[in-house]
Design brief:
By secondary structure, the chain is an alpha/beta fold. The protein has 7 helices and 17 strands. It has helices at 13-23, 40-44, 84-96, 107-114, 148-159, 221-224, 247-265, and strands spanning 7-8, 60-62, 72-79, 129-131, 135-137, 145-146, 173-179, 184-185, 194-198, 209-214, 272-274, 305-306, 312-313, 315-316, 321-322, 327-329, 334-336. Strands 1, 3, 4, 5, 7, 9 and 10 form a 7-stranded mixed sheet that branches. Helix 3 packs parallel to helix 7 (247-265). 50% of the residues are buried.
Length: 343
Amino acid sequence: MPPPPPLTAAIPLLLFLFLFLFFAVPVVSWRPWPNAKPNSTDFLYGGSKKYEGSSEFVHLKYHMGPVLTANITVYPIWYGTWQSSQKRIIREFIGSISAVASKSPSVAGWWKTVQLYTDQTGANISGTVHVGEEKNDRFYSHGKSLTRLSVQSVIKSAVSASTRPLPVNPKSGVYLLLTSDDVYVQDFCNNVCGFHYFTFPSIVGYTLPYAWVGNSAKLCPGVCAYPFAVPDYIPGLKPVKSPNGDVGVDGMISVIAHEIAELSTNPLVNAWYAGQDPVFPVEIADLCEGIYGTGGGGSYTGQMLNGKDGATYNMNGIRRRFLVQWVWNPLLNYCTGPNALDQ
């Protein structure tokens, strides 16, 4: 039997239809997937509610598995060609998760919602997230087209390298594989912008929580870097200016946030998720995909912030600004973020 597919950063179309029909969620997560063909006006006028995505029909449950309660270390694996400026943007975002002194609304304020989730002992998700050792794979050791399984082989190469291997940290480590804009990963742009799962001991030698996120700048910016780019088939929709001057990387930030939040609350796919099937779980960020502010839902991102330079964002980091999707609040039972107008 083939291994179950890794978790995706968005709900495949069939699963979306199942959730819509079975759970009747009034405000659904959204990304402009090329195979979705709603009425063109749906793209321009998304539905909104005071409590974004709220629904008594969403039953997010704890399935007794472990969550990341110890200090979380993110180990970036830079696969392909990366500019130093791009790495700095991503490093600062990860560092901003624990930067509680950042200007409000902040990335650290966003993480407070993730911290509401607990394990069976009542211990909360850690409030400390930092960047650990990094690995560069600038020579594309596994080629420029990766499958879901070869993604794990890249991670194996990183933890078993003869020089400066990444530490093996199954308890509080998050292995973040980042592919450059000239690398294709299985299903990229069609129905995923990133995914997370755990490595198989038969391939890597260890069970390690990991995520993959790709730079879509050359392949599908209108899908995975939305709203900093928009697809041609959506009439009347214009992109907004990215806050750090790099459409591909600014688009990656929200996907990275999505995956880190879900890895922290569901690292082995047996902790926090909705639905009955752990192979296709609906997790805390899936429920809020595409919602960045008050009123968000459907194709409407919600109310975001505009800088004096014209850039669009919704939260502050240590020195930079970022656009990050909201996550599901288990106490309020709806999507929340630090830039909500009722905060």
